[in-house]
């Protein structure tokens, strides 16, 4: 089953308010995925991670949001009619809305009031939103339309995508097939390649920011908004469910010199999660042999998530090229690794390298034996012919 947006919103807020840890919530979501009739609140109660009073406190926090209860066609924010709440993130709530003049349907992100009162944050938010609006249209990027303020409420209007997030698919269905995971990564790599032309770094690539339309098109949202804002968001609102797992090592260490390679790392984490239905622990991308993931995709994953960014793909264009080749059935020549730091973090990867080398050595040994045998037979025939 696909986990509904309101369940993910509740999960995110419960973690943010310290009701449960991120690990405990992921465990509950796993139970929810395998349950037909239970809600996330039921599972929290059954596991003992939360009591009824704590859950009611989180529910009351929803009620304090001014626009949580909207009446279709009646609740107005500036030039927009709010139609339906779509979800909630670190920056605020997102609604399906309609522009009163053009009647265009949009996704309207309204900043959380706590952030709206931070003047430094607002100035950066407006600057980054304008940069996002300057991006030329791309099929795999959610298009930015409008930014504004109405009665102290700051909002950002963007393309409405009819579908669900990649997070809903992963938490609902579990693993994604290897081919489908690569197809999704190829589309997001294309989005990153386009953003890189404008020197824009996302810094928050994760399944919740990847939308999957009913037409099968994958789109990256919030592009241009995350850079310079993410640290403020995390400090003011708390790191949301799973966010820290997607951050690159240099991002986690507080390095301010962040470039597109951090987005490539985060996309690699998304690929790992799609293939395994779990998140890496301490940057260890362990892969179970039973998953039957191809050696080509394993090499791709490890190059995307290399701890040293100099060992990663240096541009989305390079990544896009290799993903396309793998999907076309072509063999990509990856730099041969030694059994060192990269493989030590993944025992399966280490064993695969050893097995591949043994297989290659066996093939070479067999070829050499055949050649030696043929040559010996030829020499023996020549000697015998001289005596006959």
Q: Can you offer a commentary on this structure?
A:
- The chain is of the alpha+beta class.
- It folds into three domains: 5-63; 76-159, Phosphorylase Kinase, domain 1 (2-Layer Sandwich); 163-335, Transferase(Phosphotransferase), domain 1 (Orthogonal Bundle), CATH 1.10.510.
- 49% of the residues lie in helices and 13% in strands.
- It is built from 16 helices and nine strands.
- It has helices spanning 5-16, 22-33, 40-47, 52-63, 113-116, 119-134, 166-173, 178-197, 230-237, 243-246, 249-252, 260-276, 295-304, 316-327, 341-344, 347-387, and strands at residues 76-77, 80-88, 92-99, 105-111, 144-150, 153-159, 163-165, 210-213, 218-220.
- The strands form two sheets. A six-stranded antiparallel sheet has the order 1-2-3-4-6-5. Strands 7-8-9 form a three-stranded antiparallel sheet.
- Strand 3 and strand 4 (105-111) form a beta hairpin.
- Helix 8 (178-197) runs antiparallel to helix 12 (260-276).
- The chain is globular and about 95 Å long.
- Mean pLDDT is 80; it is low at 227-242, 338-343 and 351-360.
- One of its GO terms (molecular function) is protein serine/threonine kinase activity.
- ATP binds at residue 109.
- Keywords: ATP-binding, Kinase, Nucleotide-binding, Serine/threonine-protein kinase, Transferase.
- Residues 80-388 form the Protein kinase domain.
- Pfam families: Pkinase (PF00069).
């Amino acid at each position: 089953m696909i986990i509904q947006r309101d369940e993910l919103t509740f999960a995110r807020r419960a973690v943010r308010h310290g009701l449960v840890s991120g690990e405990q919530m992921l465990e509950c979501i796993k139970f929810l995925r395998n349950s037909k009739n239970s809600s996330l609140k039921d599972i929290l109660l059954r596991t003992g991670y939360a009591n009824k009073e704590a859950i009611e406190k989180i529910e009351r926090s929803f009620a304090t949001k001014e626009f949580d209860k909207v009446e279709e066609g009646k609740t107005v924010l500036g030039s927009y009619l709010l139609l339906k709440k779509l979800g909630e993130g670190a920056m605020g709530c997102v609604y399906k809305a309609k522009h009163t003049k053009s009647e265009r349907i949009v996704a309207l992100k309204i900043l959380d009031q706590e952030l709206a009162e931070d003047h430094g944050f607002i100035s950066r938010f407006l600057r980054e939103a304008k940069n996002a609006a300057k991006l030329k249209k791309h099929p795999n990027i959610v298009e930015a339309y409008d930014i504004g303020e109405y009665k102290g409420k700051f909002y950002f209007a963007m393309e409405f995508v009819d579908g669900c997030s990649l997070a809903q698919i992963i938490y609902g269905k579990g693993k994604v097939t290897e081919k489908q995971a690569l197809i999704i990564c190829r589309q997001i790599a294309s989005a990153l390649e386009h953003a890189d032309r404008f020197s824009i770094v996302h810094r928050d690539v994760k399944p919740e920011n990847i939308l999957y339309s009913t037409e099968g098109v994958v789109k990256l949202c919030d592009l241009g908004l995350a850079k310079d804002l993410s640290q403020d968001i995390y400090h003011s609102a708390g790191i949301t469910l799973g966010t820290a797992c997607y951050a690159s090592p240099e991002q986690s260490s507080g390095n301010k010199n962040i470039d597109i390679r951090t987005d490539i790392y985060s996309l690699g984490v998304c690929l790992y999660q799609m293939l395994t239905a779990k998140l890496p622990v301490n940057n260890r991308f362990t892969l179970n042999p039973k998953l039957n993931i191809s050696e080509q995709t394993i090499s791709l994953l490890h190059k995307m998530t290399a701890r040293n960014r100099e060992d990663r793909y240096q541009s989305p264009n390079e990544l896009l090229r290799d993903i396309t080749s793998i999907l076309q059935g072509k063999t990509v020549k990856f730099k041969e690794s030694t059994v060192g730091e990269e493989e030590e973090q993944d025992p399966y990867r280490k064993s695969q390298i050893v097995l591949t080398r043994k297989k290659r050595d066996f093939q070479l040994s067999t070829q050499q034996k055949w050649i030696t045998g043929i040559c010996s037979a030829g020499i023996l025939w020549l000697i015998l012919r001289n005596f006959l």
